[in-house]
Each structure stands twice: as structure tokens, then as C-alpha cells.
Design goal:
single chain; 10 helices
Length: 296
């Protein structure tokens, strides 16, 4: 579509981005904001091989932390054949092996090839302290633990994207409902799901695409935003930053207009009107929600 920079111009704010579990698979959702020059980026990725790829993608100036986030205690790390499935929770074959394209067998993505012990770091203990506007988490079941140990950090955060499972891919892991309840307690509202993943139960298959599901939802990326019931809780800059993130990352056009309208009311600016006119130039407005992710 377009960037909100086209509406805000020189009033575009700088956004502090934190990516927890930053291993590169596809281009990150926040890449447009980062490459616009209006963002600072911190990447947390304990896999050193992935860190080299991150440096190539984002440059040596990007802050990369080679740490495991958690509760600050020692944890057993279940290292899997595919690094992106590594977790402090053990993969559960009684669930995983029932589905196409995910497996715990030899040389399969969830095969545990070794275990390690690592000292974890609390999100609130990351130094130097930074107020993150946006936090993204993709850490294989550890999302809730990290958020629970980042309550002070969340006080200044506007948008959170967290991977969440609907059924326990890993033994004893928290699920989406657990994360939603916690986030609500911290003053966030669940906004929407994107990139929902499903797989077919074996032995049934209805496509050559083994990643195409039929009925069972497995995991998703869940988007949470700071509670908007009372916008008095939003500073002027928070309104603009949230609008910028929700436009450029999530195409939440109605919500963006909602925030711009409030900002205009306070500051006698024309952003909401300019935004509505820009949207009117498109014959079709895409929806970025509840989309099935049917690829590896």
C-alpha cells in the first residue's frame, strides 16, 4: 500500500523496535519502518549463525544481543535439528507427530539433537534500558515467560506481536489464552491474528502443499495494542507512533484513522483528512488479518 510517512512527512517519529527471536526466515514485518530511517532496532537472537545473517541484513550498527531471554534463571535448552524450533520447552511428539510437515523424527524440524544449559536474562534487565515502542516475540513457547519478566518494559510499549500456539506443540507450554489474559492485565487489548498456521492430520492430505491445513489451527502471530478505551492514556506522540506501526506493519486502516483523528483534535492538524483522501485513491483495500500461512 503506502507508508504513513507520506501523510506525516517530517513529523514522522522515530520508533524503537525490539525483535526477540530474530532469526531471519522471511523479511521481517518491521523492515519497511527500519529501512525508512525512522527506527532504532534491537535484535535478540542466541543462535550465533543467525547473528551473522542479521548483521548482513541490517548492518553492523544494529544492536544484536546473543542471549536467551527468560526469568533470569538457568534453563535447559532443547536444541532442534531446525534451529527455529529450539526452545526451553521440550517438543511434544504426541502432538507434533500427528500432523503433516512437522515431525520429531530423525532430521526433522523438531528433532532434539542435544540439550544445553544457559543462564537466561530478564527482559527488564536488558542494559542499557530502552523504552521499546514495539516488541515482537517468536521464541517457541517462551513468549509468556519473557513478557512476565518484562512488566516494566511493557509500561512504555504500544504494540506487541507475539507468536502463540493454540495447542501445546511443546510440553507444558503456555497457549494463546494464557498470553491474552496476561496482556489484558498489563493494559493491552488483543487486536487480531495474522499468519495462522494449520496442518492436516496424518494420513489425510488434500493438496501437494504439505503446509496446507484442513481443520486444526496450530499457531499464529497475535497482535496486541495499548488499551484504547480511554485515549487520555495516550500521549500525543503515542497516538502517532501507534498509527505509524499499525499502518506500515499491519494495514489496520480504520484503527490508524481512529488514532489520527484523535491527534488532529488535540493539535489542529490535517492528518486524518489527508489519510482518508489517500485511502480513497485505492479501488480495493487489502485486509491483513486471519490469513493462513500455507508455506514453510
Amino acid at each position: 500500500m503506502f507508508s504513513l510517512i507520506e501523510i506525516l512527512g517530517t513529523s514522522t517519529p522515530e520508533i524503537d523496535l525490539l525483535d526477540i527471536g530474530a532469526m531471519i526466515e522471511d523479511e521481517p514485518r518491521y523492515a519497511p519502518i527500519y529501512h525508512s530511517g525512522y527506527a532504532k532496532l534491537t535484535l535478540v537472537e542466541p543462535n550465533r549463525e543467525s547473528n551473522e545473517k542479521l548483521k548482513k541484513a541490517f548492518g553492523d550498527e544494529t544492536r544484536i544481543l546473543n542471549i536467551f531471554l527468560g526469568n533470569g534463571k538457568k534453563a535447559t535448552i532443547y536444541v532442534t535439528y531446525y534451529p527455529g524450533c529450539t526452545s526451553i520447552f521440550k517438543p511434544d511428539p504426541s502432538i507434533i507427530d500427528k500432523f503433516f510437515s512437522i515431525n520429531t523424527g530423525p532430521k526433522s524440524n523438531f528433532e532434539v539433537i542435544k540439550t544445553e544449559t544457559a543462564k537466561t536474562v530478564r527482559l527488564d534487565d536488558i542494559s542499557p534500558k530502552t523504552n521499546y515502542d514495539y516488541i515482537k516475540l517468536d521464541i517457541q513457547g517462551s513468549e509468556l515467560m519473557v513478557l512476565q519478566n518484562g512488566i516494566d518494559s511493557l509500561k512504555n510499549t504500544l504494540v506487541v506481536e507475539s507468536e502463540a500456539e493454540f495447542i501445546p506443540i511443546y510440553k507444558d507450554q503456555p497457549l494463546f489464552g494464557d498470553i491474552q489474559i496476561f496482556m489484558q492485565e498489563q493494559g493491552f487489548i488483543f487486536h487480531k491474528f495474522i499468519d495462522i498456521a494449520s496442518r492436516c492430520f496424518k494420513p489425510m492430505s488434500f493438496s501437494d502443499n504439505v503446509c496446507e491445513g484442513m481443520s486444526q489451527l496450530l499457531w499464529t502471530d497475535a497482535i496486541f495494542i495499548r488499551d484504547f478505551k480511554d485515549l487520555k492514556n495516550y500521549a500525543d506522540l503515542d497516538l502517532i507512533k501507534t498509527a505509524y506501526i499499525m499502518q506500515d506493519l499491519y494495514s489496520s486502516f480504520d484503527l490508524v484513522y481512529f488514532f489520527l483523528q484523535e491527534y488532529d483534535k488535540r493539535n489542529q492538524t490535517p492528518y486524518a483528512l489527508k489519510y482518508a483522501k489517500k485511502l480513497a485513491t485505492f479501488s480495493e483495500i487489502p485486509k491483513h488479518m486471519l490469513n493462513l500461512k500455507e508455506y514453510v
